TrEMBL record:
Domain of life per record: Bacteria
InterPro entries noted in UniProt: VWF_A, vWFA_dom_sf
Pfam families the record matches: SBP_bac_11 (PF13531), VWA (PF00092)
Organism placement in taxonomy: Bacteria, Bacillati, Actinomycetota, Actinomycetes, Micromonosporales
Residue segments, region Disordered: 323-364
SUPFAM superfamilies per the UniProt record, alphabetical: Periplasmic binding protein-like II, vWA-like
Protein name per its UniProtKB record: Substrate-binding domain-containing protein
Regions crossing the membrane: none
Gene3D superfamilies per the UniProt record, alphabetical: von Willebrand factor, type A domain (3.40.50.410)
């Protein structure tokens, strides 16, 4: 069974060191031989459940004389949680991953990475690691994603005879007496992400895309899952009932998206209550274990990696995978594999997303759907304190060709209104507008003061509905300074205190402070003990990215620019989701 190493510090480093020594001994013996004109040391980082199979195959390959030409190859295989390696890779390549955070220091970037899912490669590329080509990462194994239920609970709802759909699970988790469903943080766990994608797709089908009914169903499902979420897979598994007592079963975890391998490994520990694996329709994205050669490695190492990949495609490797409760890429399994009750036939593996050859897994995934799922999850399940500031200068009247003629103001307000529906009552939110001379010589106008949504959600909805463009210019600098001071003044511990400002132009206020004066004042006001994150969303072609970034470089946060105002909703969610965690 997999153990999450995230945050394990010295223990993780020690484990990695042991793995390196164990996985490379044969390699270094070979390198000492007289027939090598040189040596290549290839580092491989693999997800914990597949690492023993990869290490065994690599050791055998090296012992049998692994080489490229006259150059001998040593292979160091380490076991590392995919989220830890993803954080390290993102840091190295300047990418951002929603919900992942900073690299922990317990993982390093290898030459070859075998995470549990191609979704990691897709997220890294979408997050800014442009060198990650979608075709890089052919599958070497597979494990379907299932919904795991305690067998008594599964039997009660018709398992193993009944076929289940994700819409059935959605009804169960959002019922008046809901099934207690949980999830491993989907921003940090590929099986959790796969389950989230399937469940939100089922929620979206309850009404027209983007309709209030569909959004209500989606948010309800997300919050139901978030009630029993865990950052660590082991913690989630520990919540399943450990006794056959009816009370224990009723109070324990009732369902969670896990991999088939997770369920087999859990049941192999002989728990008091075994888990049933439900293979829901439509099949979710499986874990496909891509063999990814990371960007920037030496050509000789890339050549060695290609030869190693071929060694991991043999029939013998399929049997090694079976020993780890994993399938081959085509869904078949090797000798000794013990399939759960109800497992789909090896003829198709129950898979529809990845081609039978196992090639191009990442290319088959939708980066927009993945990004939307992770950002929506982050927004809907976190808590914060935010001042929303919306530009109402005259240029916001401009029509948006890609939004059926709606104005910039209208698409901005629509994005803010949709975002408001994702925030739960633990949030505190306020609303300002700005232009020039909105209140006498003051450039901003407070429509709703910052307060808990439990009391001012209606006021915010009315405030947003009342927004209309003015005839003024863009009083950006004075407004930003006032907003920063306001949020800092009533700073709330335990939450991310932030400003989200929408604008379609540059500062254009002859009577306001200068850029230098603004930046100087913000530097003096900044307090790392009580940080205020500033998110600026630039709309259209008239914004100055450099100007916006100069502000967020001082305050922390980020500047996002979209030349297509109809994309503002997507940018808004991404901006909120990528904020750092609240101070502790």
């Amino acid at each position: 069974m997999r153990n999450s190493l995230r945050g394990a510090g010295a223990a993780a480093a020690a484990t990695a060191l042991v793995a390196v020594v164990a996985g490379s001994w044969f390699g270094y013996q070979q390198l000492a031989g007289p027939n090598c004109s040189g040596r290549i040391e290839l580092s491989v980082s693999a997800a914990p459940e597949i690492a023993p199979a990869v290490r065994g195959a690599a050791d055998e390959w090296v012992a049998n004389g692994a080489r490229v030409g006259d150059t001998c190859i040593a292979v160091n295989v380490t076991s590392a949680e995919p989220v830890d390696v993803a954080a390290a890779v993102a840091s190295k390549h300047g990418a951002t991953l929603a919900g992942v955070g900073q690299a922990s220091g317990t993982a390093v970037t290898p030459d070859v990475w075998v995470p549990d899912s191609s979704t990691w490669l897709v997220r890294l590329k979408a997050g800014g690691a442009s060198a990650f080509a979608p075709g890089n990462g052919a599958s070497i194994a597979r494990s379907p994603v299932v919904v795991a239920l305690p067998e008594p609970v599964a039997t009660r709802i018709g398992w193993p005879d009944k076929d289940f759909r994700w819409s059935d699970l959605l009804k169960q988790v959002t019922a008046s007496k809901p099934l207690r469903a949980g999830i491993v943080e989907p921003t940090q766990d590929a099986a959790g992400l796969s389950g989230l994608l399937s469940l939100t797709a089922a929620a979206s089908s309850t009404g027209e895309a983007g309709s209030p009914q569909a959004q209500e169903a989606m948010v309800g499902a997300l919050r139901a899952l978030a009630t029993n979420r865990s950052s660590l897979r082991q913690d989630l598994l520990a919540r399943f009932p450990r006794s056959s007592d009816p009370t224990a079963i009723a109070n324990g975890l009732g369902a969670a998206a896990l991999s088939e391998e997770d369920v087999i490994a859990y049941n192999n520990t002989k728990p008091p209550i075994k888990l049933a694996a439900l293979y829901l329709d439509p099949p979710p994205i499986s874990l496909d274990y891509p063999f990814a050669v990371l960007p920037g490695i030496e050509p000789s190492k890339a050549s060695a990696a290609r030869v190693l990949y071929e060694a991991l495609r043999s029939g013998d490797f399929k049997d090694r995978l079976a020993g780890q409760s994993l399938r081959a890429p085509d869904g078949n399994w090797g000798r000794g594999f013990q399939a759960p009750t109800g497992a789909p036939s090896p003829a198709n593996g129950g898979e529809k997303q990845v081609p039978p050859s196992g090639q191009g897994g990442a290319a088959e995934l939708d980066p927009v759907a993945i990004s939307t799922a992770t950002t929506t999850w982050s927004v809907a399940t976190q808590s914060g304190r935010m001042l929303c500031v919306i530009d109402v200068s005259g240029s916001m009247k401009e029509p948006v060709a890609t939004a059926n003629g709606a104005s910039r103001e209208q698409v901005t307000v629509a994005a803010a209104s949709q975002g408001l529906g994702l925030f739960d009552d633990s949030w505190s939110i306020g609303l300002w507008t700005f232009s020039t001379n909105l209140q006498g010589t003051q450039d901003w106008d407070e429509l709703v003061g910052i307060g808990p949504l439990s009391g001012n959600r209606g006021a915010l909805q009315r405030g947003l509905a009342s927004i209309r463009p003015s005839k003024g210019n863009t009083g950006l600098y004075d407004t930003m300074l006032a907003a920063y001071q306001k949020v800092q003044q009533d700073w709330e511990p335990g939450k991310v205190n932030s400003i989200v400002l929408f604008t379609d132009g540059q500062n254009d206020d002859d009577n306001g402070i200068s850029q230098k004066a603004l930046l100087d004042k913000l530097k003096k006001l900044r307090d790392d003990e009580q940080p205020v994150q500033v998110i600026i969303i630039g709309i259209g072609t008239e914004v100055n990215r450099k100007e916006l970034k100069s502000i967020t470089d001082v305050t922390g946060g980020g500047a996002f620019v979209t030349t297509d105002p109809s994309k503002i909703g997507e940018i808004f969610l991404q901006a909120i989701a990528l904020r750092p965690p609240a101070p502790r």
